[in-house]
Amino acid sequence: MQLVFVPNMDMAQEFVGLQSLTNNDFLKTLPSYSAEQTSLNMIVWFLIAISGMLFAIFFYMMNVQKIDMYGILKAIGVKTITLFIMMWTQMLFITAITLLISIICSQLFVILAPEGMPFHLNLLSVSKLALIFIIIGLFGATLSGLQIKRTEPLQAIQNGGN
Amino acid sequence: MLALKDITKTFTNGEIEEEILKGISLSLNPGEITALVGASGSGKSTLLTIAAGLQSTTKGLVQFNGHNLSNMKPEHLRKIRASKFGFVFQFSHLVPFLTVEEQLFLMLEVAESKLKKTQKKEKVHQLLQLINLDHRKNAYPAVLSGGEKQRVAIARAIIHEPNVLFADEPTASLDSKRSKDVMELIRELTRIRNISTLMVTHDEEMLQYTDRVIRMVDGRIV
């Protein structure tokens, strides 16, 4: 197979007797590029997975630390669903603030980064990641909520509610 | 209104059965503070939590307005706790992310108060004035003193006009001056609002603020 690369052209041009490829398709044909991209993508997704785990653990711990306070609230008659709503609201509030800060920082980097640096963070990727983090946060908060659901108000009173 | 009849509570620890309460009967009167006193392990806190529907009896009846709390469904019991009972504990247990005002609004929500928003606001305002904390209505628990926190906890316990107030060592975490202030407040509110108050205390000095003292020894009233 013979390949023709035309610089600064994103669209593939047709040449008689030759196969035309877009820039991206052309890059995929380079074995070294694919291998490099695989390891880079692995690093990125691994970092996302670790951040996600930390995010979920943060919300889980934040609520579990206050388990006796929630137990006391159950003792005074607060519905379990109200406690869940409290936890989810806190989670959404904190997540919204952290996501906003992260998006501002990353977009600032996109603006300030040198032109030649191959760093792109489009709105679709940002939105997808934000959604993933909201789901992870919800998961962490819900997991702690299930723990709190099982808490006996009496136990919380005996523990001093601290 | 709230009456306990022949209450027995037994705990099983492995093969050992321990009788914590041995046939206790008592009734609470509106507008009166009843103090439960006794050494640690005498069963006073267990009695308070049974009276409040927070734990079951082994034998005996807990009657509130003609209903037997002992065999009530959990959701019905929760509704009674939320709307007819008020609780004050040794520590204030305020929600850290709510302001003083919001703590009281939360309790009105929990009690499913039928008041309109403006009426709720007025009620909160009046009660905060009564406990001299109106100027702290926007403060979070973290910036309140121990005495102020406990006063907010008392306000939260009575904002929904409960019939019964349960106080488990409400002055234990306070110094003597603040303890007296808190007890005076409980006495005043018990009288003004015609509440039946049941209080557990270790502090003999606080008994001067009560109307009736019940001494407990080894699960029995003496």
Give a written overview of the molecule.
The complex is a heterodimer of chains A (162) and B (222). Chain A is 72% helix and 0% strand. With 162 residues, chain A is mainly alpha-helical. Chain A has a domain of 113 residues. Chain B has 222 residues and is α/β, with parallel strands linked by helices. Chain B is built from 6 helices and 10 strands, in the order βββαββαβαααβαβββ. In chain B, the strands form 2 sheets. In chain B, strands 6-7-8-3-9-10 form a 6-stranded mixed beta sheet. In chain B, helix 3 crosses helix 4. The longest helix of chain B has 17 residues. Chain B is globular, with a radius of gyration of 18 Å. Classes of the chains: A mainly alpha (162), B alpha/beta (222). At the A-B interface, helix 3 and helix 6 of A face helix 2, strand 6 and helix 3 of B.
Write the layout of secondary structure elements.
The complex is a heterodimer of chains A (162) and B (222).
Chain A: H1 23-28, H2 31-64, H3 67-75, H4 80-112, H5 123-150, H6 153-158
Chain B: E1 2-13, E2 16-28, E3 32-38, H1 44-51, E4 59-64, E5 67-68, H2 74-83, E6 85-88, H3 100-110, H4 117-130, H5 146-158, E7 164-168, H6 176-192, E8 196-200, E9 212-217, E10 220-221
Parallel strand pairs in B: 3-8, 3-9, 6-7, 7-8
Antiparallel strand pairs in B: 1-2, 1-4, 4-5, 9-10
Helix pairs in contact in B: 3-4, 3-5, 5-6
